[in-house]
Design a protein that fits this description.
By secondary structure, the protein is mainly β. It has 1 helix and 9 strands; from the N terminus they run βββββαββββ. It has one domain: SH3 type barrels, CATH 2.30.30.
């Protein structure tokens, strides 16, 4: 099996793809959701796992805390969940193009 880099629109992203965005490699682990647009395009979105968070942190591609969910801790307040794993949200319509690494037979 080989890994190919393809350019796909948001509706073509699938489980197992690694989306290349802002210096990140984002693994898609579940099926993207979609929100049909009445007078406009359907929007697709999915949260993926950032495979290279330390590289992103070092390169300062995006603010590091953006990769982590905020959660409320009683008696402490809102904090970033650095234990929960780095995540990034991929969203767009059929016009948005993404570079993805995809396993090809």
């Amino acid at each position: 099996m080989t890994v190919a880099v393809l350019y796909v629109n948001t509706s073509e992203i699938r489980i197992g793809d690694v989306v290349l965005v802002h210096g990140m490699r984002v693994l898609i682990e579940k099926e993207p959701r979609n929100w049909p647009g009445g007078y406009s395009s359907t929007v697709y979105g999915v949260i993926g796992k950032v495979l290279n968070p330390e590289e992103v942190k070092e390169a300062k591609c995006v603010p590091y805390h953006w990769l982590f969910e905020e959660k409320f801790i009683p008696g402490v307040g809102w904090r970033y969940d650095y234990e929960g794993g780095a995540r990034w949200y991929i969203q767009g319509n059929e016009w948005a193009q993404w570079a993805v690494e995809r396993n090809e037979p």
